[in-house]
Every structure is written in C-alpha cells, then in structure tokens.
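User: Here's a protein and a ligand (heme C). What would the complex look like?
Assistant: Let me lay out the input and then the predicted complex.
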Amino acid sequence: MNSMFNKIVVSCIFVAVFFMNGHASGQIMPKTPFNDGGIHEGVMTCYGSTCHSRQEATGITVRQNESLTWQDGTSTTGAHYRAYKTLLTERSKSIALRLGLFTPAHEAKECLSCHTDGIVAARRGAKFQIDDGVGCESCHGAAGDWLSRHYEVGASHKTNVSRGLYPLEDAKTRAGVCLSCHMGSEAEGQFVTHRLMAAGHPRMSFELDLFTALQSHHSEDVDYETRKNVQSGTRIWAIGQAMTLKQQLRLFQNPALNRDGIFPELVFFDCLACHREISDDPNWRPVVRQNPGRPSLPGIVKFNDASMIMLLATARQIAPDLAPSLEAQIRAFHSSISGNGSQSSATQALEATTNALIKRIERTNFTKAQTLDILDIVVTDTLTRRYTDYVAAEQAIMAVDTLLSSMIASKQVARIEVSQMRKEINMAYDAVENPNTYNQDQLTNALRNVHARLRELR
Ligand code: HEC
Ligand code: HEC
Ligand code: HEC
Ligand code: HEC
C-alpha cells in the first residue's frame, strides 16, 4: 500500500504556458464539519472508559474502543491522530520555510485546516485541543448539540442526525467530509496547491472505500445493520469516484483557487504530464502516448482524469443510456483545455451528468454480475488504452482491490477464490509502484492476467 504513495522525483520539466478563463462557480460548497456552524467539544469529551476509550472492543452497540484505534501509532487507523504531530516534524518545518510562511507549520492556517480540526476559535468548546489532530468531530460533526444526549434513553441515529451528527454511513456525506481534506475545499487554508507540493508536501491520492477501510474503527455487524443502511463497497467506490470528480470540477471553476500567478493552478493536472523526461539526442522519441479518450495536442498539459475514467466504467454497466454522453462530455472537456470550445459549458455539462449518475448509483444494488462487469471494463482493452498516465493507472489497481474486497464482504465471492488471484493482482500493483517508472504495457499485461482470473469468478 505504501508504495502507492511514492513521491514524485522530478527529472526534467517542461514548462507549458497556457491560459484558462476563471469562471465563477455556480456550485455551493456542501455542508462539512468545517462550515456547519456548530460547537466542537473536543476529543477529550468522547473519552472515558464508559464511552469511547475502552481497552477492548467490548461495547454492545458500538465497539467503544474507537479512541484507541484512532490513536493507534502502529497502523493507518491512527493517521488522523498523528496528523498534528506531523506538523512538528523536520519535514513540515522545511515545507513551511520553503513556502515562506510567517509562522511555523503547527501554527499556520495553511496546514492546520487539514492536519487538525481547524475550526475557528469561537466554535471550540472548553475541552477542545488543537493538538488532538483530526479529531472525532472533524468527521462526525459538531457535538455541541448532541454530546450529552446521544446516549440517553430514546436517542436514535435519526435523532442524533437531526442534532448535527453526520450520517457518515451515507457514501455521499462521507465522501464530502473526507474530500474536504483529501482533495481540499474553498475553506481558508484547506487546499494543497502545487506550490505546497513543490515545497515538499506529498502528492494526494484518495479512494473512498479503500481509505474508509484503512482508517476504520467500526464493525458493520448485525446491530449496525439495524441502525444504519449498509451500502455495498462497490457503491461506495462508485459514489467516491463521482464525488471526487464533482469536487475537482467545483474547485477547478473557482477563480480564487484555479490560478497561481500567471499560470493555472497546476494541481488539477496530471503531474507526470509535465514531470517527464526530455533529451537532446536526435534519436529521442516523445514519451507521451496517444490516449483515445482524451483528445489533446502535443505539448498540452493533461487534466487529471482518473475519476472520469472510473466513473465511465461504472456508467457503462449501470447507465448504458448515459454512458455515451458522459464519454462525449469528457472528450469535450479535454478539448476545451486545449482551447477548443467553451470551457465553462464543457465543465457544467460534465457536472450535470455526474449528478445524474450519482442518483443512478444510489439506486443500484450492485449484484455480483454488475460488479464483475465493472471490473471487466476496468481491466480490459476498452479502458486499459486510457491508462497512458500514472494517476488513472493507480485508480485502476485500487479499483481491482476494492471491488474484489466488496464482493467478499457481501459474500458474493469466497475469500479463498480471491486469494488465489493475489499473484496476478500483485503483478499489477508492481506496475504502478513508482510513478516515475510507470509503464503502460507492463500494467496492461498484468491486468490481462487479472482478467483471465476474473472469468473464473463468474
Ligand atoms: C487540503 C488539506 C491539507 C493541507 C492544507 C495540508 N495537508 Fe499535509 N497532508 C494532507 C493529507 C490528506 C495527507 C496524507 C496524504 C496521503 O497519504 O494521501 C498529508 C500528508 C502530509 C505529510 C506527510 C505525512 C506522512 O506521514 O507521510 C506532511 C509532512 C504534511 N502533510 C505536512 C503539511 C504541512 C507542513 C502543511 C502546511 C504547509 C500541510 N501539510 C497542509 C492534507 C493536507
Ligand atoms: C476521518 C474521519 C473520522 C474520524 C476522525 C473519526 N471517525 Fe468515527 N467513523 C468514521 C466513519 C467513516 C465511520 C463509519 C460510518 C458510520 O458512521 O457508521 C465511523 C464510525 C464510528 C463509530 C461507529 C458508529 C456505529 O454506528 O457503529 C463510532 C462510535 C465512532 N466512529 C466514534 C469515533 C470517535 C470517538 C472518534 C474520535 C476518537 C472518531 N470516531 C473519529 C469516521 C471518523
Ligand atoms: C480534517 C481533515 C481530514 C478529514 C476530514 C479526513 N482526513 Fe484522512 N487524513 C488527513 C490528514 C492530514 C492525513 C495525513 C496524516 C499524517 O500522516 O500526518 C490523513 C490520512 C488519512 C489516511 C492514511 C493515509 C496513508 O497514506 O497512510 C487515511 C486512510 C485517511 N486519512 C482516510 C480518511 C477518510 C476515509 C476520511 C473520511 C471519512 C478522512 N480521511 C477524512 C486529514 C483528513
Ligand atoms: C503544467 C506543468 C506541471 C504540472 C501539471 C505539475 N507540475 Fe510540478 N512543477 C512544474 C514546474 C514548472 C515546477 C517548478 C520547477 C522549478 O522550480 O524550476 C514544478 C515543481 C515541482 C516540484 C518540486 C521539484 C523540485 O525539485 O524542486 C514537485 C515536487 C512537483 N512539482 C510535484 C508535482 C505534482 C505532485 C504534480 C501533480 C499534482 C505536479 N507537480 C504537476 C510543472 C508542473
């Protein structure tokens, strides 16, 4: 897994000069714990051995050892507790210095907005501590109105939600919350720009279902099912892709975020579109490859379209009526980046279809046959020709892993059947281990092996 987060080493850089028009976005920022106005009481108020800090997961309704899982220093489940501590490291100190920030990282709004529960001082309760990092209420919502009432007799998930608890079991709500930090938002300082990355911040990569599992501190047992509506992993994956695209398009239309000096904000584009090899050797051939779904001229910086590709795979299975227009709109969007046609109408058309698809995804139950079809589309020729660049390749292999796990979880396939294909899956992971040495042929071959194995699951 860690290999997926390899940092980009820059060998040589083309500087592409191009211009885009900033468009005022008609989109409204969804409600997140950062803008809902409530009081955040702080992690301390969730503590207590009769509350969420038992040593063992012995609770009747919920595990009740959530705090310890959230703090676990040995696992990815502890990432959000570590987030503040990260700001005290030498690496963060140098990032702040290189950026020319006037305050150290652990005091800078530019870092605290994501590495802590970065709400304004007026909304912090008496026990709130900024060094708790990304605390419970950063995801579960301001507890001011429900803290003392959510365990009382008669309280239910519904009453809690009406008092401000976030229904995180709902994939759309969850995606909105995670993406505000894992992609960024309009909130002050909550956006990782290309400048931040060039100062040493890691590249960001996110996939809703996989990342949920990596930070999980809950059990979807029988009790959970009676309280909440359990969604299939495949649906969570698909909603995650659609919401990622929506957020990306929304921020991309925001004039306050989409420019940096005389250039467009580069973080929206495919990193390796610029960070490629260059040579003076007369026998050198350009490394860029033709991508059938992404009409673009040589030398034009490509938009990061990983979520578009994954959403298209979903649409081909569950919404064959919408898939052709989605495909056409994606092409028109890429064309508009090269200056052909109106960028704002291309972006808005794509947003509208994405919204229509979210509704379809929410109505789809994702049977075994449907999930296998989507996997088939992700690993076969129709799409593999589109994995010319690293970001889409990375999402493709995460999709293979996520969708297979989802079928295991919903007992559509047996774990043993999937473990028999580990070798093939690992070969595909190897092909995307290092962004700088990514080779499309290697990935395509590996996915072909995965495809052969998938047929045995039918
Ligand atoms: C938009 C939200 C956001 C902002 C703003 C932000 N970060 Fe991060 N940061 C993240 C996320 C998310 C990760 C984890 C990336 C991953 O692994 O996918 C991360 C990872 C890191 C890491 C690597 C941690 C590790 O253990 O590998 C460092 C260091 C870091 N951030 C420092 C900073 C500093 C310093 C600032 C301010 C200058 C900052 N970040 C601003 C969201 C943000
Ligand atoms: C990064 C976001 C995030 C943070 C931070 C976080 N949680 Fe969660 N939590 C989730 C998600 C996602 C779920 C699963 C979806 C749901 O709510 O049912 C969950 C589930 C839970 C559940 C189980 C709910 C149930 O109905 O079974 C409890 C209890 C819980 N969290 C408590 C906490 C506590 C206490 C903290 C702080 C120590 C915390 N969480 C921090 C995201 C988060
Ligand atoms: C307030 C901002 C914030 C929110 C909201 C948030 N995260 Fe994070 N997340 C971070 C930061 C910052 C890091 C990196 C922490 C570090 O290593 O310093 C991180 C790290 C992680 C990691 C570990 C990644 C790795 O490479 O090790 C996972 C998994 C994760 N987040 C999942 C989620 C999920 C799922 C949600 C939504 C339910 C979510 N996060 C919501 C800020 C946030
Ligand atoms: C439009 C072209 C372009 C795109 C797209 C782009 N970069 Fe850059 N990148 C540059 C330029 C130009 C520089 C500055 C080089 C310099 O300082 O001389 C740079 C610098 C960097 C540096 C610092 C390199 C160093 O050695 O100082 C990092 C790291 C980096 N980019 C990462 C990324 C990541 C991650 C992405 C994708 C999210 C990305 N870049 C997308 C053009 C691009």
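Summary: Residues 47 and 290 are 55 Å apart (CA to CA).
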